Amino acid sequence: GKKSLRQKIVDELKHYYNGFHLLWIDTTVAARMVWRLLHGQVLTRRERRRLLRTCADLFRLVPFLVFVIVPFMEFLLPVFLKLFPEMLPSTFETESKKEEKQKKKLNAKLELAKFLRETIAEMAKRNKADTG
Predict the structure, then answer these.
(1) Nearest to 74 by CA among 18, 4, 8, 26
(2) Cα(116)–Cα(114) distance, rounded to whole angstroms?
(3) d(CA 3, CA 10)
(4) Cα 63 from Cα 87, distance rounded (Å)
(5) pLDDT digits (tens, 9 = 90+) for 65-114
(6) Residue 34's pLDDT is what?
(7) Is the model's pLDDT at 4 over the cut of 80?
(8) Distance set, CA 68 to CA 74, 77, 109 (Å)
């Protein structure tokens, strides 16, 4: 059914609270990784990607905070998100946005695989024609 205005506001506040909480957790984990890097330890590929994502999220947080702090500017947030879809830190993404990104990546990978398969088939035909 339809949600009341109060319920929508509560849901949005929970979403922002959870986003900030996840960002705080990611930041503390990233700080530990930086500490390890400074002491000569090597990060795994997964840790390196997480550190880069967290740093990017922290840089994205600055323009996002302007929308949260300035009164009534949060009403412009959907417009800016339409213009700049990567503006939000990753911890503030909804499940539907994450699924949409995954679908786009999967479609791109499928197109690449199709292209490579066709290229290999073409090369095989050429080689067969050259040797035959």
Answers:
(1) 8
(2) 5
(3) 11
(4) 8
(5) 888 788 888 788 888 888 887 787 887 777 777 888 889 999 999 999 99
(6) 95
(7) yes
(8) 6, 9, 37
**What's the angle, vertex CA 72, arms to CA 83 and CA 91, rounded to 5?**
55
Q: Which two tokens stand for residue 101?
A: 């990104």
State residue 130's pLDDT score.
Answer: 82
CB 41 within 8 A of CB 66: no
CA distance 130 to 97: 49
Distance CA(79)–CA(13), nearest Å, equals 19
80 burial level (CB within 10 Å; 0-12, 13-18, 19+):
middle
Taking residue 92's Cβ as centre, other Cβ atoms within 10 Å add up to 20
Instruction: Output the pTM of the full model.
Output: 0.63
Q: What is the CA radius of gyration of the chain?
A: 22
Residues 41-48, mean pLDDT to the nearest whole number: 94
